[in-house]
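Entry 14. Structure prediction run on the chain below.
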Amino acid sequence: MSTYREIHGKAIKSLSTDPSAETDAGQIWYNTTSDTFKSIVASQAWISSSNMITARSKAGGTTSSNSTQSAGMAFGGQIGGATSALNEEYNGSGWSTGGALNTARRWHYGAGSQTAALCAGGQDGTAGATPVTANSEEYNGTSWAEGSNMGTARYNGGSGGTQTAAFATGGSPAPSYTNATEEYGGTSWTAGNNMLVSKGYYGGGGTLTAGIVMGIGASGTDSYEYDGTNWTTGGTMNRGNPQGSYAGLQTDGIAFGGSPTPVNATEHYNGTAWTNYPSMATARYALAGASGTSSAAMGAGGYTPPDKNTTEEFTSSTNAITAAAWSTGGNLPTPISSCVGGGTKTAGLQMSGQPSGPGVAATTAVNEYDGTSWTAGGALAPGAASYGGQCSKNGTQTAMLYFKGHYAGNKNTVSSYDGSSWTAQSTFPNTDVYGGGCGTSTAALSVGGFAPSSPYVQATCFESDGSYNWTAGGALGTARYVNDAVGIQTNAVTAGGLAPSVLAKTEEYNGSSWSEKSDMISNTGNTKDQCFGTNSDDMMVAGGPPNLATCIGWDGTAWSTRPSISTGRGGGAGAGASSTSGWIGGGQSPFKTATEEFNGETSTINVKTLTQS
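Output returned:
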């Protein structure tokens, strides 16, 4: 009898602790601490990710050989029954706005990648009940340009490949289905050989010379393979999924979702046979975006009804993935709003604010957070008791600066905190309120604000030095208030606010001047709630109006969606060291004590205990 070492080239080790490297996958070891045999094995699972900006279905995606899980797209589609030209891009964490299609459409053919995509055919909604187009467009990562028309106007068949080597087959050129196949070479469409059946409403993927379509036939279990010349019958699926999606190659891909009753089924194809895989959390069909490989795929949107905005990621790996999410933290001692926060998730500060109830005086209270519970810190001096104040958000629990604000008149007081008590420092140059604050306790930044006299909305910027003296910095390009800011004095970003109407503009500071960057996502709140992180790794949480639960992240270039908090609010306090580790607490309406904590996506080696069963 052969030994384990002879078969696998590895001996069974005796270890007191489990190994944690992916290279140990397949190795069996004896854990002397737990008295068990263990191994690292691959597992498959879907996890939730950030929602799309706009719920929709029947959109095009990059279901091709060179698409990835962290660079997906959803272009066009259906929103509430109407065709759309909207385009969203996925970066592995959330969705941002991309260049819109020139022609709104749904049920169209898609191929390519996020920086080189192809859109063709579809229902364009220009006239009649089911108008169909032959129009094609190409995407360069920024904008769409008109390409050559297809030979036959059609919608809702299968497609795959790249922008310069794609196929499209089947579909519904009214009033009947077709089996016609067309190939795109980057310049024009040419006729290929017909598919074996005339059908529509199915998914496709792979390459031009190794393509696949699936979810076909009366039962929706048929699949067909294309070699660039001829179609042949593929394996029979276990559970039919017309209007499902596909990600990966002809010999290694997954199909997910489907109809007519929305399903969450997932199946893997190895080029010969289909195998059941773990199901999606949300049953749906006509997904708005699908991309990636058989081991790292993404699916978003779709129809149940109604149109969905949920996103899920599929992973087949030796790592167990935990999705980024908000969780419940310890409650603040009292309900409060119009407060500010600083520090980190495990060493945070909530300062001042207005306690619950109309006409209630602003509080001097300061609370410290250890990642589990809040305890009272050193109270602000009575003269500094104010709400609408600012702080050196990127300071620490033992080195913080609090400045300005108002209650019974605007304040110009400045106080520093050493972890136990506050010390009065040089007064601020003005009494403007509701601006953004960031930086450290010895190098703080104040951005924008609302003055007590005209002109009310301010573009001013002030910097403090190590002696707490303030000097004017570069002016904002757009005056604003109720904005927030993150970063350090020489590398900061501010976004949103009122000017005096709701503002979506983002500006970045280099220590001397501000420059305009990409606008915030329009439907996720623009007035101050809380940012946390750094200049190029920021998350804006909640805000309004109205009070929202939505969150968005900034990567130094663009804003994209992030997981929402459970309770919408405005006027809370929050802080964190990065966009993947922070907290928010308090806020209104009504006034709240609730704290929520954010944890970014994590992965751990999937160690399994071996048994005889």
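The two ends are 22 Å apart (CA to CA).
Filed with the rest of this week's runs.
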